[in-house]
Structure formats: C-alpha cells, structure tokens
Specification:
Shape: globular
Number of strands: 3
Distance between the termini: 36 Å
Strand content: 5-15%
Strand order of the largest sheet: 1-3-2
Number of domains: 1
Radius of gyration: 15 Å
Structural class: mainly alpha
Order of helices and strands: HHHEHEEH
Length: about 140
Amino acid sequence: MNEISKKLLLEIMSYLNTRKFKENDKYVIKAFEKLGDNLVFTRTSNLLSWLNSQHHLSDTNLEVYNVHEDFMDSEDFEEVYNEFKNLFKYLPELKEIFVLKEKHIEFNPSLSKNDIQEIYEFVKTNYIINPKRITRYKRPE
C-alpha cells in the first residue's frame, strides 16, 4: 500500500473516532472545509465500514460498495450519489484506493489482489472504534 493511501486511511480512522483533526492531517481536512462535518463523516464512515471486516455479513460484497440500495427511491439515490461525487472531488486521494461508478464504488483497477487484501488487513489492524464515541447523538462540546 502506498504512503498516500496509508495516511488517508489513518486520517479517516482518527477523524471518525474523534471528529477532530491532528496537526499533520492534510487530506480529510480539505474535504471537511468544503463539505462540512456531516457529509464527510457519513460517507467516509460508509467506506470504512465496507473495508472493516468486523462489519461484514455473509452477503457482503468485498469487491463493490453499492451506493444504490433497493429501498432507495431515485431522489434518495441521487442525493447519496452526489454526496459521494463531492467527496471524491474534494478528497481526490480516495482515487488512490477507490473508483466511483454509476451505482457503486469499487477498488481502483490499478490495485492488485494483494494490495486490496493489504488494505483490508490494515483497516482490521488499525481501526479500533473508541467506545466513548459510540452514540447516536453528537455530544455537546
């Protein structure tokens, strides 16, 4: 895995656990400044959950993250798709790992099977969810 991908994943993991940035963060903060907290948090959380083997069910597709779900109407899908489109626009480093297609996100074709497996292992090893941050509500500062 290249250094950009590694740093990006570490920044996303840290941000999802704390909703704060560190001094040396440079990728996620750019998207945050353009898109805001809720969009960046929600969509990076979607991607990381897909990569996190602890969230996999027996029918989880490990090669494709479906943006379109059966329960979505066309307006909901367009809204979610546009959020991902903006995330990829303002966080272009995601393209090192992913490619946004019409109804799904898949791994960048330049990645080998070993690279993809390394990404899954990296997330499994490094993403520890902070139990103090697990809540359905954002705590007041």
